[in-house]
Amino acid sequence: MDTTVIEAMDDIRTHLRTFIGKYLGSESFGDDENIFGKGYVTSLFALQLVMMVEKKFGIRVDNEDLKLSNFQSVSAISGLIERKLSGRS
Amino acid sequence: MDLSNEQKIARAEFKTFVETEVAPIAATCDKAEEMSSGLLKRVGTCGYFGLTLPKSYGGRDADMITFGLLHRRIGGAWPSLRNIIASHAMVAHAVCRWGSDAVKAVLPRLASGEIIAAFCLTEPSAGSSANSIEARASQVPGGYLLNGDKQWVTAGEIAAIYLVFARTDQGSCALLVDRDSAGVNINPVRGMLGAPASMLAHISFRDCFVPENRLVGGLGFGISHVAYTALDLARYSVACGSVGIAATCLFASRQYAAERCQFGKPIDEHQLIQKIIAEAAVNTHAAWLMCLRAGALRDRQDPSAILETAMAKYFASRVAVSVSSDAIQIHGARGCSADLPLARLYQDARLMEIIDGTTQIMEVLIARLLKGDSRLYGESDEC
């Protein structure tokens, strides 16, 4: 994979981890950990996450994107953003 | 914060509409606990039901500041009407944001007010604890079978369409349900403390079939995304409507205090009255500025809009209660009379600390949201 692409993906994950981490305090979490299933984050946070992702990355989260598989972990959210940016979603 | 020319024109339009068509009938209709169907048609004709919806759906595509100006003006004259318009807007907004194309087909009828929509989340055992809802949507061929009870549904008695939240095996969901679906039972509610013409109803659903193309948003996202999108808008409306109540009461207080003479001078020259008026003015002004800021953030789709909307709702609703109470105090016995709108607005104000998230829930929400916002008097302190 192209290093530029890898760096961009890392940037997305870093940004997501920073944003989610603000709400978790000292709680640590892995990129593949189910952040909603473990009760780390709330419904309220979910809406903020969508707004942040849309504003930061200039994408639109549509009705079709509302699947648990797109939002349950940093990796999942990052994957959705990447697909949106590349026009594949 | 200056309004744009368009916003000023809209503000003048709303003022005229309220003064000529809303204010004259508010007291009578509230006493009868009946919303005027003729006025609701006028609200639709003026485009107020679809104020912020895109023009492609028949809306006016107005910004959130303009929405705030409308809800402040109507809220200051007739909170019952603001309630109904807000509840309808919640559903329209959620459908516009999260609906499939099939679901969005209803938007032109919502924009025009041809049909009224109502938001059905609260249940007997689930109020502030929205995630505790027990209504169930069981998947069956072609759709869902809905069972459950919803209560305190604003406009529930007159709505043609309901946005209903329920549990499924895959988490919460939001379904658009037609009033005339089999299994829908509507029980009007009367005798409420405030906004008595809000046409409240308790609604029960018994084996009510809802086609699958009436799902709004995905399974598992009903409360987190669809409900919260709607509630976020509702809180902004409540905040602006609360300022409306406070502004109306403050204006009345100032007028009366300048005319009423006791101990040889107008009472607004007595310091204790001056203190009341000064505090009311400062608080009302602060509440409005918070609303304007929340509106501006909403227009920029800034994630901080959620926090600042919650702050505006929290503060403005409490201001409405205190300023309306102060207005009655300043007017004395006259303030308790049905000849003035103050007693009615005092009762209406009390609701504002309860609906769409109680004051206590707002406090918890604000504290939690602040954890993730260093910009607001935090580390980066960009305020």
List keywords for this structure.
heterodimer; A: 89 residues; mainly alpha; globular; B: 383 residues; alpha+beta; 4-stranded mixed beta sheet; 4-stranded antiparallel beta sheet; 52% helix
Q: Could you explain how this protein is built, in words?
A:
The complex is a heterodimer of chains A (89) and B (383). Chain A starts with a helix and ends with a helix. In chain A, helix 1 crosses helix 4 (74-86). In chain A, 61% of the residues lie in helices and 0% in strands. Chain A has 4 helices and no strands. Chain A is mostly helical and 89 residues long. Chain B has 383 residues and is α+β, with helices and mostly antiparallel strands. In chain B, 52% of the residues lie in helices and 15% in strands. Chain B has 11 helices and 10 strands. Chain B has helices at 5-32, 37-45, 64-77, 79-98, 101-104, 107-112, 222-259, 271-299, 305-331, 342-352, 359-371; strands spanning 117-120, 136-140, 143-153, 161-168, 171-178, 184-188, 201-211, 215-216, 261-262, 265-266. Chain B is globular, with a radius of gyration of 21 Å. Classes of the chains: A mainly alpha (89), B alpha+beta (383).
